[in-house]
Design goal:
The chain is mostly helical. It has one domain. It is built from 9 helices and 2 strands. It has a two-stranded parallel ribbon. Helix 1 links the parallel strand 1 and strand 2. The chain is globular, with a radius of gyration of 17 Å.
């Protein structure tokens, strides 16, 4: 078994639970308070299913995906589509840093950023390793995403969601 130390990520909690945030902070955890947790989770689901669908299209190999700039471009555009569908429903915006790197900077720079991240050891650790071990979870998440980002609103995202279902079917057959 291989263990890797990962720097602690902020715990996200709905802002209506300040006492829970206080407990986490007292225990030494970083906490981000979120105004609308359901919306935060929907935005996160769009992002995760888009990157996982792209990974599955490239054999669930982060380094291979990093070399496929066109597929990384499709992942970014799929996230934009899914988030636009949520914007149309007047959902609160995605977290600032992620919104900036996905939506605000020119596409070619966003592609370079994600290719660099995916090519690093973090690409496998953050995304591909989990995706390889959780095809049923990813398929369930893709089903959830389809409830608020349908094919007519987000055709690129829908294409990546299909890759998740195909991967899950393949995993079940093995």
């Amino acid at each position: 078994m291989r263990y890797v130390e990962i720097p602690q990520q902020p715990t996200s909690l709905e802002s209506t639970a300040p006492e829970i945030a206080w407990l986490f902070r007292q225990a030494g955890f970083r906490v981000d308070e979120v105004e609308n947790m359901d919306s935060w989770l929907r935005r996160h689901a769009v992002f995760i299913t888009a990157i996982v669908g792209s990974l599955y299209r490239d054999g669930c190999d982060a380094a291979r995906l990093a070399r496929n700039r066109e597929q990384v471009r499709r992942f970014i555009l799929a996230v934009r589509e899914g988030w636009a569908a949520l914007d149309a429903r007047e959902e609160p915006a995605a977290p600032l840093a992620l919104r900036a790197i996905i939506c605000w900077i020119p596409l070619r720079f966003s592609v370079t950023y994600w290719c660099t991240l995916l090519a690093s050891s973090r690409g496998d650790l953050y995304f591909a390793d989990h995706a390889r071990h959780a095809p049923a979870e990813m398929a369930a998440l893709a089903t959830d995403v389809r409830t608020f980002a349908n094919e007519s609103e987000a055709p690129g995202l829908s294409h990546l969601l299909s890759a998740i279902y195909q991967w899950q079917t393949k995993a079940v057959m093995q």
